[in-house]
Amino acid sequence: MMLTLYRRVNPVNKIKKLTGLTRVIGFGHNEPPAQGEAGNTTITQAAHEFSTMANEADSISRSSSRCLSSNTSTPDGNPRVKRVSIEGNIAVGKSTFARLLQSASPDWEVVAEPVSKWQNIESGTMKGTCASSQTAVSNLLQMMYQDAQRWSYTFQTYSCMSRLRTQLQPPPARLLSSEGTPVQVYERSVYSDRYIFALNMFELGCINSTEWAIYQDWHSLLMEQFGHQVELEGIIYLRALPQKCMERLQRRGRSEEKGVKLDYLNKLHIQHERWLVEKSTELHFEKLKHVPVLQLDASVEFQSDPDVREQFVTKVTNFFNNL
Ligand SMILES: Nc1ncnc2c1ncn2[C@@H]1O[C@H](COP(=O)(O)OP(=O)(O)OP(=O)(O)O)[C@@H](O)[C@H]1O
Ligand SMILES: Nc1nc(=O)c2ncn([C@H]3C[C@H](O)[C@@H](CO)O3)c2[nH]1
């Protein structure tokens, strides 16, 4: 019997060959990311083709109502403690803003992005010379920036898993007994993992079509299984132009981000705008399509200006009260 194997042509690879974008995004210090938008539209079309294919069987019906054991519901079925994520480009100021919120009200609990986990993955033990052993530690954030094509898929599996853990953390007792509007605030979410970063890496060719299909498959399964526990009631979008984010990124000087180029921040900015402003990103979770978004101008300097800080806190308070 003869077996015929058909090899599907990966349109992204084909496009990369056509446009010469063989290393669409190399953050490694010897591999600057390609400048300009060459080929991006076509890659985006290919991305859409694949995301449609991978998701036909994947349209999510919300999982049968899984109750939050640690977050009691109001009579209308909504969780007592609201859940909001802060979204925005790299170095736009999410952690800084989160600290401001944390100090503004005891009813708000901020949960940081698990960056330090990505920088310190215990990856086994190394035998030392004199019978001692040392723990080997990998920095996945650095590995991803140095060789995006090799490590992006691995990075997205780990970032998404660690975000899921973060979002599943029960609210602290203080929030459960609050008489105001208690809110758990996450720095980014399982949704930006998919609709900002993983999607962007796919469009850049750093995640191939097989990896993207697999990512979407398990992401949808997890969202379905964890149902209401990972849903958000609101999103705060901190918006600033990529140039401003670049200035802050450089000022912060995180060593892993040395190779990040303005072009990459431009692309991430576009993904945020599509998802949160233009609403043109194809989403697969019904509730997410209707989550209210509070957009704040993050380009203003608020650290040294108490009036600006107060205005931000007032806007956020009103937003939370209306969720
Ligand atoms: N409103 C602001 N005005 C001026 N500088 C700011 C402002 N917000 C943050 N910064 C500075 O910009 C840098 C990046 O801020 P921060 O670490 O809060 O960004 P981030 O969005 O959390 O980053 P990441 O995307 O890596 O998680 C820091 O050096 C911080 O002090
Ligand atoms: N590739 C990729 N996928 C993600 O889901 C993701 N989330 C955050 N980051 C990068 C941005 C900052 O450098 C740093 C801290 O936010 O980590 C990500 N990078």
TrEMBL record:
Entry GO terms, CC: mitochondrion
Keyword rRNA-binding recorded: no
Gene3D superfamilies reported for this sequence: P-loop containing nucleotide triphosphate hydrolases
Composition bias type Low complexity, residue spans: 61-73
Catalytic activity: 2'-deoxyguanosine + ATP = dGMP + ADP + H(+)
The enzyme's E.C. designation: 2.7.1.113
GO MF terms, alphabetically ordered: ATP binding; deoxyguanosine kinase activity
Protein origin, superkingdom: Eukaryota
Span list, region Disordered: 61-80
Keywords: ATP-binding, Kinase, Nucleotide-binding, Transferase
Domain Deoxynucleoside kinase, chain residue ranges per copy: 84-320
Pfam family, any one: dNK
Self-association and partners: Homodimer.
Entry similarity comment: Belongs to the DCK/DGK family.
Protein name: deoxyguanosine kinase
Native source organism of the sequence: Anabas testudineus
Native organism taxonomy: Eukaryota, Metazoa, Chordata, Craniata, Vertebrata
